[in-house]
Structure formats: structure tokens, C-alpha cells
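Give me C-alpha cells for this 384-residue protein.
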Amino acid sequence: MNLNNRLTIYILALAVFLIGTIEYIITGVIEMMASDLGVSTSQVGLMVTVFALSAAIIAPVLIALTLNLDRKKLLMTALGVFIASNGLMLLNLPYEAMLGVRVIQGASGGIATVVAMAVATRLVEKERRGNAIGIILMGLSSSLVLGVPAGTFFSEYFGWRALFIIVGGLSLVPLFIISAKVPAIKEKEAVTLRMQLSVLKDSRIVTALAITLLYVGGYATLFTYITPYLQSASSLSVTEISGVLFLAGVCSFMGSKLGGQLADSKGSKFTIITGLLLQAATLLLFALAGVHVIVLLLVLMIFMLGTWSISPAQQLLLVTLVPRNPDMALSVNTSFIQFGFALGSGLGGYVISRTSVLHLNWAGLAAVAVALILAIRLFKTHKA
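Here you go.
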């Protein structure tokens, strides 16, 4: 990988970081927005759901319809729409109109994220694609580590609307650099709709997508409610938990990077199976970890590292399974990641309403165990 291409991939990761920040930022300013808009907290929470569903459903459809377009032009168009939609948040729009803006943000952000990953894989040698995907995913995990805490901090001084303008303004940086540095990327042969749909006829693809849904679902079951979980399982204060979550975010960042490197050196099979085993083992250990706070924190850090190491290998596996059409495979997988978050948060909410927050790890473990069985079956039946 030459230096110019490496820097370009980090710029693509910056774009994904800014998109991720806009997706998750509402969780940090939810009460402030509810008060300002005169709606309930749950109604503001719907803005997070709308973004995720838009990225999961609308983005892949639009990517499927534009597969024969130059990837660079599509990426720049999606980023341009994303930037403009952030500007709309400065207007005094009614709540319903703001939901519409979030749909636009989710669709444009979802397209830009998927195409950024696909472009990154085209800028490197075949044996470096896992590492390139890992760098892009570091951008996404970094939005949780840095974007949301920083956004929450700045909202106290500038208000929540300014956050969207600041992030929209910063997004101009990757837009201009992509315009200057990324070459035109177009498929050598036209891709028909029938060819696109045939991707989903492959049982290996369906199994890989089911693994994504379940391992992300198992992660989100616990992590969506990690603050109340830590409060129940330990004597940590809210301030201490904030520090713990920052460290957990750093581990997710490191996991993305490590997963990409392992996928290149050891292969997708080794990385995915190892990550799932770590995820399952730590979810089991959460039951015992409450005995000592240091053990609990260590288990949480390994849980984050293991979970986030799976994603680059999973994306690389799909690119390998669909070498002629990586954009479509990556976009569908990204949709299943979003659906996994929805599944996990819903499952976690159900567990809390019926039993205790301390039982979340068991529900997460059940989902991850099924993912592990599917992964073993996939790699046993088909050579990846």
C-alpha cells in the first residue's frame, strides 16, 4: 500500500467517523433535544431508530440501483447530501420534519459508509483488503469513543443544533480530499439487477449475514444497557462508569484494527471463530465478574476487543465470496449490522422488563452461541 493510498483510506475513515458521530450523538443530548422540541424523550429516541433503519433499508436499495455508477461520484454525492442535511438541523423545523431529515441523513450516511469501505478495498493489494476495511471500521468505532463524548461536552456550550453544523462543516474536509485523491472507480462489466439478487441465492452469503445479525445482536443486548448493568453489578459511580465506557470504546477501536490485521495474516476463518469464542466466553464470565470490579472491567475490555475484531474479517469474507460485486455484499452486511443493533436493544429491553438487568449476558450469550455454530458450519461446509 503506497503512502498516498494509505492516507486516502484514513480520510475515508474520517468521513465514516463523522457519519457515525451524527448517528449516535443524539444519545448524549437526548434530554436537551426533548426539552427544546417540546416532545418526550422516547420521541427523540425515535430519531436514532429512524437513522438506523434508513441506513439499513434505504441505503442498500439505492446502492443496488447505482452499481454501474462511478463509485467516486456516488461517494461524493452521498457525502454532499449528508452535509446539506446537517445544515437543515439549524432551521427551526417541527419534530416531524426533523424525522424526515434523519431519514435523509441515514440513507446518505449509510451509502457513504458502505461505498467508503468498497473504495478502500480497491485502493490496496488483495492481501491488504482486511486491513483497509479495519481502518474504515476504526472510524465507526471512534465515533462512539470520541464523537459522542466530545459532542455531549460541546453541546453544553453551543447547544445541540450547533453540533450538526460543526460536524457538517468538518465533513467538507474529506469531501474535498476525496475529490482530489480518489480515482474514478467503475465496474468493468455492467451489473444487472438479476446478478445483484443472485448474491442472496448463495447459502454462504445468507449464513454469513445471519452470523452478523446474531453476533451484533448478542453484543447490543448487553452494551445498549451497559450503564445500568455496571451500576447493578458494581459500586462504580456514574463518573467512573463514563471512564470505563471510554476505555471500552478504546478497546473497540483496537479490536477493529487488530481484526483487520488478523484477517489478512491468519484469514477470515481464524479471526471470526476466535472473536466469537472470546465474545461467548466473556458473556459467560460476566456472571462471575461481579464478585470483583477489576475482573468485571477486564472481562468487559476483552468482550469489546473480541466483538469488534470480528467485523473486519466478516466484511472481508463477504468481499471474498462476492469478488465481482463487493459493494452489494458490504451494503447488505452493513444493513444486518444495523438490524443486529435493533435486535439486541429490543431483546435486552425484553429481558430487563421480565427479569433483571443482570441477566442480559445470558440472552446475549444465546445469540452469540448460535452465531458460533453457524460460523463453524459455514467454514466446515465451504472453503472461505
